[in-house]
Amino acid sequence: MGCLKLKKRVVKPVLKIDQLASFLEVSLKKALTNVNVELVEHILNEEGNVLLVVNHEAGSVMIIGLQEYVIAEEPVEELCKGGLREVLVYDVKPPFTYARQNYLLGNRIMDAIHEEMFNLVTVIFTKIIVGDLSGVEQGVSRLIDHTKNKHFAIEEKLMVKYGYDKYDKPGFEYHVKRHREFLEALNDIASELKARQLGDFLLDFMGFIEDYLGYMALDDKKLALYLARVCGLNCSV
After folding, report:
1. Whole-prediction pTM value?
2. Which of 28, 52, 111, 185 is the most exposed place for a label (fewest CB within 10 A)?
């Protein structure tokens, strides 16, 4: 990366850095003045997951630093010309690191499988932004398997075992229908992976997850409230 001597692998972003940052959970860690290239280099090499906004005479450069990778757009060479004015250092967390707490339902079984889902999504997101196509394919395959054979299967077993299918037959049928639709949509997205740019795939994938979370906040919450009444903390599959 020009004059920067980095220990980590440098990759080009699959989308603009500001687009990638919009999916991440970021918080300002520190603002540094009287900076130089060596300081930027040190932060990227030694600190964990960070987003840097480096302001210089000609404008600004955004760089994402991960544990093993640095993601940067051109022209980072501008940093080598001097004239650095300020570096804003943001702490970076993967999507849904904190936001997933907003989707807790209070049912230990459903919350556990949703936590597994979020972890799988995080792996896929990370593989996408560092350009690891093979890792993305493996991650999506694992998510499909988890969704079909564990996530949705367990929820449907709970609905039948505790009588939700009889208590609210239309709600049960709609819930199962939505499961089939989401699984079909996920398979469709996966089938297009090799034919698409990773940046485009990322937009579709994250859009799919956002749609699912909207459903989860309504239909899954309704089921969790029902289970709280009929089996409380003693629910089992």
Report:
1. 0.90
2. 28
